[in-house]
Amino acid sequence: MSSSPTQIDTYTLCQRKWAWTALAGLRGIQNESAALGSAVHKVIEVFFRSGMPIDMTTDVGEIAMSGYHLWPSRERVITSGGVEDRFSIYLGGVQVNGVKDLRWVDDDGVPNIVDHKTTKDFRYAKTETYLQTEDIQAAIYAKHEMLIRKVKQVRGHWWYMRTTRPHKSHPVSVILSEDQIDPTIEKCTQIVTTQALLRRQGAKPLDLPPSPQACEAFGGCAFRANCNLTDAQKVRAIMTQASNVQAMLSQVANRVNPPAATPTTTEAPPTDRVPPDGWGWCRDPKGAWQMAPLDGSWAPPPNQGWGPIIDPKAPPSPPQPPPAPPQPPAEAPVPPPSAPQPPATADTASPPQPPEAPKRRGRPPKAAQASGQGATETKEDLDDEIAEKAAELVLLFLRALRG
Ligand code: SF4
Question: Which atom of ligand 1 sits closest to the CA of residue 13?
Answer without folding.
Answer: 7
